[in-house]
Amino acid sequence: MIVRKAKSFVFVLSLQIAYNEPMSKVTVWILGDQLLQSHPAIEVALERNAADQLQILLIESKGRLQRQPYQRKKLVLLLSAMRHYAERLRLDGLAVDYRASSSFAAGLIDHVKELGSGKIVTMACSSYEGREFQMNLQEHLGLPVELIANTQFLAGRYNPIPSPEPDKRYVMEYFYRDMRGHFDVLMDDGEPAGGEWNYDEANRKRLPKEIEPPEPIRFGPDEITQAVMEEVSGYETGVGSVDDFEYAVNHEEAEKALEDFLNNRLGQFGPYEDALTKRSHAVFHSMLSPYLNLGLLESLSVINKVEDLYRSGAARIESAEGFIRQVLGWREFMYWQYWRQMPGMLDQNAWEADASVPEFFWDGETDLACLAHALNRVIHTGYNHHIERLMVISNFFMLAGVKPRAANAWFLSMYIDAYDWVMPPNVIGMGLNADGGLTATKTYIASANYINKMGDFCSDCTFDHKKRHGKNACPYNFLYWNFILKHEERLRANPRTARNVLSLRYLDEHDRELVQMEAQDFLRDLNS
Ligand code: FAD
Predict the structure, then answer these.
(1) 3-state secondary structure string, 323-379?
(2) Whole-angstrom Cα distance, residue 448 to residue 482?
(3) Neighbours of 170 (CB within 10 A)
(4) Is the shortest distance between the CB of 415 and ligand 1 below 6 Å?
(5) Which of 4, 162, 201, 497 is the most buried (most CB within 10 A)?
(6) Residue 422 pLDDT > 60, yes or no?
């Protein structure tokens, strides 16, 4: 039997194996972030085998769970969701082998040795490394392995750019329009619903004082979750604590989290999508990424529900389109970029940044109010909304010259929704522009002016958001101007960042010297 080494791209459809051995057990190996309501690997296996021939395998790999420090709440979410999923499959009458092992390889070998198996069926992993492992599995186990296409991403079903040219930049906007057309989302007779493809201009409002975003729904831990919390709190390394764990851990709860968003936050999602505030953690964001990334929710069904609300008049177009753009546009584009750029993406460093992640990123101890809020939020809950991730945290990394690989690892450690496929395009591509602009057409850098314009963090900060240099000047300011001066030519050459450089005309020679000097002192202290 031959395993064809498929190209590592979005469309690894199958390692089809001629397999005729009758009556031996068939193992469906389900990965922890593939907890789909109706799982294609189980469906495929059931089409060809009787249910009593099937055994479902789920492995908790200690090596994988402890490869680096991870957000403890994320580990609770992942393990509790896996255990709930196994319970559900058992209730559906399937035989489930749920095992904790030192590694995936050890778990698979032990499973085959102890329970016997004539074949493994598994769905393609969303990450490069995981998929490489699956592709070598047949050789490793000496068993036929059927690798079926990953259905968690719509770009795995339809690829708007099947053969990208190596250095060509593809813009998310056109990718997204193509996806909308193909999946017939927010389309009226081939035209965008509401007349525009994009309502970005209406989606950049600061949160007014009189608007109080509602608290997202919380879920109390049941017995399974409590047991996991106890285990994870005993892990030697990890970020944050398991206390106050309130995430959904099964399909029913994830659906409730979706309903909560649709009923209480979608309406204001669009206008306040970019707002930064100390008054609310989620603002009007959905907080659905942990469930989409685990398979507890599926993107097309979420998208369709949002569109239905727009069609029924219950949601305005700026919100419906703004949200769908995130899921059908950005999420899919990032997955596409990941597969386009891996395996080299992790080593990209187009701005030659070489600093380490500052110590205070691990404990949130800083006088910078915006960073302190964002860092404490992520340490305690595992979550920041997009603008906190991009314009507060990643912006700081970019201005401070933090190495992309180190920044990527930090993000992987902190977040409730962090998975291997989602980090490099967001951190190395979008946040740090380290891939030469393949993911994002501009650098996302900003001074304190932007952070103050979009939010209320600056009002009680020790630093003065208006000062570029001198006593109490906000570090975002001198770091920003230092960055612009350092990379002036390069930023000027990009029409999307040339405007940042133009503002240099407001800085005389003396200002320029001071911002550079203060930036150097600050960075030296930070890295010492
Ligand atoms: P909403 O604002 O409500 O958006 C709806 C959904 O759109 C999200 O749930 C998510 O599934 C999807 N989405 C939107 N933008 C993106 C994007 N750029 N990439 C992927 N999905 C997107 N997303 C993660 O899922 N995991 C991460 O670890 C992660 N790290 C990030 C790090 C950085 C530096 C940046 C800039 C972005 C990161 N993102 C990540 C993308 C985005 O910030 C989060 O998906 C979003 O903040 C999750 O919160 P939400 O569910 O409330 O999103």
Answers:
(1) HHHHHHHHHHHHHHHHHHHCCHHHHCCCCCCCECCCCHHHHCCCCCHHHHHHHHHHH
(2) 14
(3) 18
(4) yes
(5) 497
(6) yes
Of the pLDDT bands very low, low, confident and very high (cuts 50, 70, 90), residue 18 is very low
SS3 480: helix
Q: How far does the centroid of ligand 1 lie from the alpha carbon of residue 172, in Å? A: 15
Q: Mind listing the pLDDT tens digit for each residue in 448-462?
A: 999 999 999 999 999
Burial 79-110 (b: 16+ CB within 10 A, else e): bbbbbbbbebbeeeebbbbbbebeebbebbee
Closest CA to 104 of 70, 71, 136: 136
Select from 498, 412, 85, 364 the least CA-distant residue to 251.
Answer: 85
Are residues 3 and 139 in contact, defined by beta-carbon separation less than 8 angstroms? yes
Residue of 18, 15, 21, 85 lying closest to 57 (CA atoms): 85
**Distance (Å, rounded) from C-alpha 273 to C-alpha 85?**
33
**Structural tokens at position 336:** 């596409």
**Mean pLDDT, rounded, for 113-139:** 97
- Measure the CA–CA gap between 99 and 58, rounded to whole angstroms: 6
Ligand 1 atom closest to the CA of 385, numbered from 1: 47
The yes-or-no verdict on residue 176 having pLDDT over 70 is yes
Q: Which residues pair with 95 in a beta bridge?
A: 55
Band of the pLDDT at 392, cuts 50, 70, 90? very high
Ligand 1 centroid to Cα of residue 117, in Å, is 39
Question: Cβ atoms within 10 A of the Cβ of 188, count?
Answer: 9
Give the amino acid at 133: F
Answer whether 431 contacts ligand 1 (Cβ < 6 A): yes
Tokens 């493809």 — which residue?
Answer: 197
Question: Tokens standing for 156?
Answer: 């795995």
State how far the Cα of 17 lies from the Cα of 203, in Å rounded to an integer: 50
Contact present, 134 and 105 (Cβ < 8 Å): no
Number of Cβ within a 10 Å radius of residue 252: 12
Question: First vs last Cα of the chain: how many Å apart?
Answer: 57
* Count of Cβ atoms closer than 10 Å to residue 470 Cβ: 11
Predicted confidence (pLDDT) per residue in 87-96, tens digit: 999 999 999 9
pLDDT band at 527 (very low <50, low <70, confident <90, very high): confident
Q: Is 291 exposed, middle or buried (0-12, 13-18, 19+ CB in 10 A)?
A: buried
Q: Ligand 1 mean position to 207 CA, how many Å?
A: 20
Q: Rounded mean pLDDT of the chain?
A: 94
Ligand 1 pocket: which of 276, 289, 432 to mutate (most atoms <8 Å of CB)?
289
Signed CA dihedral, 190, 194, 196, 200: sign only: negative
In this predicted structure, what is the pLDDT of residue 23?
A: 56
DSSP structure string for 498-511: HHHHHGGGG--HHH
Alpha-carbon distance of 361 to 191, in angstroms, equals 46
- Residue located nearest, by CA, to atom 52 of ligand 1: 287
Q: What is the dihedral of CA 232, 234, 238, 244, to 10 degrees?
A: 60
